[in-house]
Design goal:
There is one protein chain. The chain has 143 residues and is of the alpha+beta class. The protein has a single domain, classed as SH3 type barrels (Roll), CATH 2.30.30. The chain contains four helices and seven strands, in the order βαβββββαβαα.
């Protein structure tokens, strides 16, 4: 399962990451400053793109430890965090491109292949991943 080396015309592939810019956070105040990962094949299944986000680990009840990430896993991270699989979403590539085109989101460094595979593995381990998200990942043969 490798995405490295793909040259996709839409500019977004599995493993890409983004965060909401300051103007994006103002427009969508419920969205905190989290790093989002594309974990599905955005370049092939443009109408069903799965995104997940990373949130800081505080040791609170309800945190999902199916996939912990450390600051060494991605340059954007600065502390131990976890994947909030309960907040995984299915969006269209068109919507993602629209947000990017309006300056509401900004790209960050892509995930390494190792991290991308850990994120996927965690999605199937977590009891919090929505069924429709799991269905999309299975349809794209990512299990």
């Amino acid at each position: 399962m490798s995405y490295l080396g793909l040259d996709m015309s839409n500019g977004w592939v599995n493993g890409d990451t983004f965060f909401f810019s300051q103007s994006g956070q103002q427009q969508y105040p419920d969205i905190k400053n989290h790093l989002f990962f594309i974990v599905s094949y955005a370049e092939k299944y443009t109408d069903r793109v799965v995104i997940i986000n990373i949130t800081t680990q505080y040791g609170n009840i309800g945190e999902d430890y199916s996939c912990l990430v450390e600051s060494c896993d991605h340059p954007w991270l600065n502390r131990t965090s976890y994947v909030s699989y309960k907040d995984a979403k299915i969006i269209s590539l068109e919507y993602l491109l629209d947000l990017h085109g309006k300056g509401l989101i900004a790209k960050s460094e892509p995930a390494s292949n190792d991290l991308w595979e850990r994120l996927l593995d965690g999605a199937f381990k977590s009891r919090h991943t929505p069924n429709d998200v799991l269905d999309v990942l299975r349809e794209q043969e990512l299990e």
